[in-house]
Amino acid sequence: MKNKIGVIQGRLLPKYKGRYQAHPVGYWKDEFFIASSIGLDCIEFILDFNDAKINPLIKDGGIEEIKKIVVDSGVQVNTICADYFMEAPLHSKDVNLANYSKDMLIVLLESAIKLNVSDIVIPCVDQSKLSNQEEIERFIEAIMPLVRVAEDNNINFSLETDLPPKQFLSLLEYFDSSNVTVNYDIGNSAALGYNPEEELTVYGHKISDIHIKDRVFDEGPIVLGEGDADFNAFFKKLIEFDYKGPFIMQTYRDDEGVEIFKKQLNWVSSYFNAQ
């Protein structure tokens, strides 16, 4: 069975309030039909910090709305990107903020169970990066109690970090769970100067969700193929792991989204087809 090809929510729509990545409040359903028209299988739903309480993943009746648009469009919601925790880290030193975020993760996990989602992506990068051992320990303490619930419902906590490969593997192994996995972002790794062959050698077997983007070293997103991401090395190495998860296009966007997305999807499709 071929891997599902999807898009991070909002990339096929005009920017919401000028934000580069956000749940498009009020017009999010339109994207499902656009995605269907260009042959995509799924949309990775976003829960971001702004307007979280009116996000369909959280608000009353929202799960039913998502289920209906999935049926109507034929485009699935298999994964959730919890950008909420970039603004309100689970490992925050602010105890009240951290406790509120833990409660939000519980609610999000309940929604994921109802939607039969496979992965909740938890970003630990930029303002939510794991900068020291103390933060790593607080992060472990925050999600450890929910790991068993995730296991029982076949949901992955798919972590994205900027930790070096061996340190990242040590974090994953601490949980001793097949459901604490890796969200691999090829563009972000390139921006950090990491080698994809080394990364996958260390933790390729733990990858359950892949974000497709390109970046220049130590700089921001750029059109696929124009940055420093080594797509040839990454996809060649990925074959060794019989990866079954989705490829989520989190590619460079302009104000509108669709045409530049199609250009980049066409560029990367040969890599998907080779898997």
Task: Sum up the structure in keywords.
single chain, 275 residues, alpha/beta, TIM Barrel, eight-stranded parallel barrel, 10 helices, 10 strands
Please write out the topology:
Elements: E1 5-8, H1 30-37, E2 42-46, H2 62-73, E3 79-81, H3 84-87, H4 95-115, E4 119-124, H5 133-152, E5 156-161, H6 165-175, E6 180-185, H7 186-192, H8 196-203, E7 207-212, E8 214-215, E9 221-222, H9 231-238, E10 247-249, H10 258-273
Parallel strand pairs: 1-2, 1-10, 2-3, 3-4, 4-5, 5-6, 6-7, 7-10
Antiparallel strand pairs: 8-9
Descriptive report:
The strands form two sheets. The chain has an eight-stranded parallel barrel, surrounded by five helices. Strands 8-9 form a two-stranded antiparallel sheet. It is α/β, with parallel strands linked by helices and 275 residues long. It has one domain: Divalent-metal-dependent TIM barrel enzymes (TIM Barrel, Alpha-Beta Barrel), CATH 3.20.20. Strand 4 (119-124), helix 5 and strand 5 (156-161) form a beta-alpha-beta unit. 42% of the residues lie in helices and 16% in strands.
Q: Give me the CATH architecture, please.
A: Alpha-Beta Barrel
| Number of structurally distinct domains | 1
Secondary structure class reads alpha/beta
Mean pLDDT: 97
The name of the CATH topology is TIM Barrel
The side-by-side strand order for the widest beta sheet comes to 1-2-3-4-5-6-7-10
The major pleated sheet works out as: 8 strands, parallel, barrel
Estimate the global geometry from the Cα principal axes. Answer: globular
Rounded to the nearest angstrom, the distance between the terminal CA atoms is: 10 Å
Tally the helices. 10
Helix content: 40-55%
